[in-house]
Fold this sequence. Notes:
With 773 residues, the protein is mainly α. It is 64% helix and 5% strand. The strands form three sheets. Strands 4-5-6-3-7 form a five-stranded parallel sheet, with helices on both faces. Strand 5 (144-148), helix 5 and strand 6 (167-172) form a beta-alpha-beta unit. Mean pLDDT is 88; it is low at 1-5, 13-19 and 261-269.
Amino acid sequence: xxxxxxxxxxxxxxxxxxxxxxxxxxxxxxxxxxxxxxxxxxxxxxxxxxxxxxxxxxxxxxxxxxxxxxxxxxxxxxxxxxxxxxxxxxxxxxxxxxxxxxxxxxxxxxxxxxxxxxxxxxxxxxxxxxxxxxxxxxxxxxxxxxxxxxxxxxxxxxxxxxxxxxxxxxxxxxxxxxxxxxxxxxxxxxxxxxxxxxxxxxxxxxxxxxxxxxxxxxxxxxxxxxxxxxxxxxxxxxxxxxxxxxxxxxxxxxxxxxxxxxxxxxxxxxxxxxxxxxxxxxxxxxxxxxxxxxxxxxxxxxxxxxxxxxxxxxxxxxxxxxxxxxxxxxxxxxxxxxxxxxxxxxxxxxxxxxxxxxxxxxxxxxxxxxxxxxxxxxxxxxxxxxxxxxxxxxxxxxxxxxxxxxxxxxxxxxxxxxxxxxxxxxxxxxxxxxxxxxxxxxxxxxxxxxxxxxxxxxxxxxxxxxxxxxxxxxxxxxxxxxxxxxxxxxxxxxxxxxxxxxxxxxxxxxxxxxxxxxxxxxxxxxxxxxxxxxxxxxxxxxxxxxxxxxxxxxxxxxxxxxxxxxxxxxxxxxxxxxxxxxxxxxxxxxxxxxxxxxxxxxxxxxxxxxxxxxxxxxxxxxxxxxxxxxxxxxxxxxxxxxxxxxxxxxxxxxxxxxxxxxxxxxxxxxxxxxxxxxxxxxxxxxxxxxxxxxxxxxxxxxxxxxxxxxxxxxxxxxxxxxxxxxxxxxxxxxxxxxxxxxxxxxxxxxxxxxxxxxxxxxxxxxxxxxxxx
Length: 773
């Protein structure tokens, strides 16, 4: 189809795309929930009817003492009203009172944005930008957000949507008065159960297992549990598991435990004492293997864990670990939250830690931690090898045979493991550093670099690498320090902090030269070249890539040699050296094909297409870019497809197939919008303007160029801004509308001031020659 066949326009929509899936993150409703009629009535007053749906009258805070049932009430109510919020539910346990580190607002926003279908690469690195993106995505949506176990208002504020179509439920032991004052939140305070409610809860748990117990004895049991739901459920489960044991004997055991606790602890309040007493009563009834597993799990870096690491913790098989976990779940000492996935209540974890400190020697505790963290290290290494088998592996010591690290046969399996365990890996590095296991700390930070570089979990990435770097320096391991410096360098570059990225890559380069790590030296030079390419400092980029290639020629590293050849191809293309660009890209493609490495092949094909298109060999260019797109689609990689479609459209436009080019540019723009890459989306918009100019429709072209320039201006991308401004000037001249282009010319020349390569000189000449419309 040629330009004459195009009618109307190609539609580019500026609004965010409709969600492709609805998050359903609410944990299950509480089994045997009782009463709380008054509290539920007060909660319902926060809702404002809006047809068959609801709006919220503000944030809802459910406050009360530990173990009183705040989470149970919040989840029960959330399940009652969730159908009135059809765009889904978001849930997070903020762990504000856990013995370990609380979850930060930035971490939560990373999780929520991913749940809202924002690609990892599009999630901003800083808290304010994440919060703004979150509010924008929730604007107009009807969603339920549950923020469980908040310690303070500062944890909550960045997670509040800016719309009354969403309802936020917060649970906390604190009154969170700041939210009442500044955000107008509504607070519902949860007290201990009334005696009748406490008796009903016990009866519901025990009804199918015991006969009718004496009412006075049930009341005594409730009193010993301070009528706290958490303690009552544990006690009732204990009674249900011993159907033939008279309740008075169970009560006497609980009294004895209470007396023992009173003798061992200072006064801290009846409710806290009751909870600890019930914990101890239940714990002492466990078989020894389960009891030891319980207290050792208190040492795990986070409250959440899977079956394999439990087996490592308890030095057991996975089958034995499952049996012990079943026992602990049955005693309500831990809870199961998914297939082979478990977690502690924060009070229970604190109790488990106390038991580990009291019953395990310092040597035993350290050995368990070492074994667990080693398991995370070697399992992460196996996952990384599966994700990127051609990446240079990190040098690790041989694992203890008892560690039993997992292995992975498929890419998707390894990726799922990393996604599930990322928070545990971050915590493992922190705990390793705190416990003097510095080698393990920096090794995990280095091993996770490949996963982080592909998925940009910036909060976790910076945490891992910063802690790992300090650990490597403490033990004086120059190799480890260089590996983690490279990770930090990549994190800074990919979060658009180029100066810091270059600084870390230079430090890694110096260390690698000092210790004679030739491949590492080549990798650091390549990384610095990429920084130069991003800055459009083409001479320096070319020098860095050339040095890297010189080092690699003495090594047998075909993957890295092909990667650097491709980077040299792009640099030469940007310098206007089309023959050299095609030569380097062809050599890179040959190398990647011998390796069977589709990632590299597609990029080399794109570069070949660019060089051949600009040299006028359009048939060759079309064949190259269509093969690249086939790779992207075979691998279901939208990031590649969206970027490579831009080159496909340019080839089509150069060949006169303007209508086809518009389809490619529209598809590229749509994908980049979905991925959140505003820079590449703007480049697609600018290319669309070029296509409309080819159609003789300069007024429409001008609108696309103007939108592209606005984005590049906001992102401070001076090179792309200058191109878009030059295109605006051309469209104005073509439209002959009489507009003065002087302000555009001045801005474009200012943007170009720092560039002196051949393409920049050509663009400067074009801008100077542009006439008013």
